[in-house]
Amino acid sequence: MENKPTMLIDLDGTLFWFGTNKLTREAREKVAEFIEKGFQIIFITNRPKADVPVFMLKEMAPGCGFVFNSNSPRIMIDDDGTTHRANSKLYIVRRNAGIARVDVDEEGTNLSYVERDKRMRLERKLKALESNGGKPTEREEE
Predict the structure, then answer these.
(1) Degrees (nearest 5) of the Cα angle 112, 78, 67?
(2) Which of 73, 81, 93, 109 has the fewest Cβ atoms within 10 angstroms?
(3) Cβ contacts of residue 33 below 8 Å, gap of 6+?
């Protein structure tokens, strides 16, 4: 079995606008991307279960797990095994920025936080390179 990461995703200010059940920009698409990559998803929140739209989260991420009433700060304790010592990551995003800008590679070892406009420019540039046989266009050379 392939070893894929487990993602702990907070709800308020990341998946939902803080204090609401309204999804942040592109949250549904980003969770779908993580699932497509094979990541296990666990939603974590300080809220009680009664205040969380569990049905919506289960629809977005079938098989996901939940941790309710989880106070902050949160501390993760892990061993220093060679398989994950260098690969365990913690990412803090600005409140209500959502998870749309968090990019994780297929193995879950490289995380980056890319500004949406920059990411879109890079994606367009990559597509242009691919369609031009790997050679930059005149506009890109400027």
Answers:
(1) 75
(2) 73
(3) none
Rg of the chain in Å (alpha carbons) = 18
**Per-residue pLDDT tens over the stretch 46-101:** 999 999 999 999 999 998 999 999 887 777 776 666 555 455 667 777 788 778 77
Higher pLDDT, 44 or 125: 44
Q: Hunting for tokens 């980056």 — which residue is that? A: 112
Instruction: Give the pTM.
Output: 0.69
Backbone angles phi, psi at 49, to 5 degrees: -55, -35
State the Cα–Cα distance between residues 100 and 97, nearest whole angstrom: 8
How many CB atoms neighbour CB 122 within 10 A?
A: 11
